């Protein structure tokens, strides 16, 4: 568990029933993860300082994500003053130290590490229709959390902007990976109101008014509310996304957000230009993305001899 003010824990919904009400355990005083029995570490990234844990809470499956947030300016001087330093290496004017922070600023180490191999997959338009679409349609990726947000059953107080138009409208709110304590890792998502666009693959020039609306109003809102200008934002879509209801990520350019690499992120401005040039661009083009070894979709590509 991340126990200090620089870390946070997030628990995904335990079940559909919990999820439908939009009610979360956050309201109760008991820590929702206090009784977590860890089954295994699904993923840990030392560089991004996060860990994904599969476990059980009262016999129900749960996924807990712990993520180290950026250093906070207000605790920085205390961190430097009160920490114990152990010299590791000295060379010319350079020295490296191991820093042992005071307990209240520190976090426990999670040592277990389960590395998942990742493979890059190239998906043609035909592969999408023959392999990916049947696969994602057969999966029960719950979008209930998305509908809860759109219907104001959850996170309603976190919405920073809404355009209610059923065709071009969207809701803008902080991604749950952002604790909103500092702008350095600013992270918001725009979730569209219409429910018939699964991902980048579904987009045609018909959706240009929706996309340009998201870009303009999303950037304007972030400038007004957080004083972060468009030139300081990375605005993109994931392919493959984790959730097949179109949403756009707005992250601070300063923040190396998980999934913002070239193999997964598609800049909204590129998407708009590609659709302006060719309405069927995302229906026909090959798209490349990473899949983890345990991803069922990878198996489909393997079985089809595409890997
Ligand atoms: O594009 P992709 O599907 O990979 O991204 C989904 C994004 O939604 C991620 O950045 C998640 O952190 C974010 N997210 C996921 N859930 C379940 C929630 C949620 O319940 N609330 C909010 N605000 N963001 C979420």
Overview of this protein structure:
With 307 residues, this protein is α+β, with helices and mostly antiparallel strands. It folds into three domains: 16-69, Phosphorylase Kinase, domain 1; 72-106, no CATH class; 117-303, HIT-like (HIT family, subunit A, 2-Layer Sandwich). Helices cover 25% and strands 28% of the residues. The protein contains eight helices and 14 strands. The protein has helices at 16-21, 73-82, 125-138, 144-150, 208-226, 268-277, 281-284, 296-303, and strands at residues 7-11, 37-45, 50-57, 60-68, 84-91, 94-100, 118-123, 161-163, 170-174, 187-192, 233-238, 247-252, 265-267, 287-292. A six-stranded antiparallel β-sheet has the order 8-9-10-12-11-13. Strand 2 and strand 3 form a beta hairpin. The radius of gyration is 21 Å and the shape is globular. The model is unreliable at 1-28 and 107-113 (pLDDT under 50).
Summarize the structure.
It is an enzyme of class 3 (hydrolase). This protein is α+β, with helices and mostly antiparallel strands and 307 residues long.
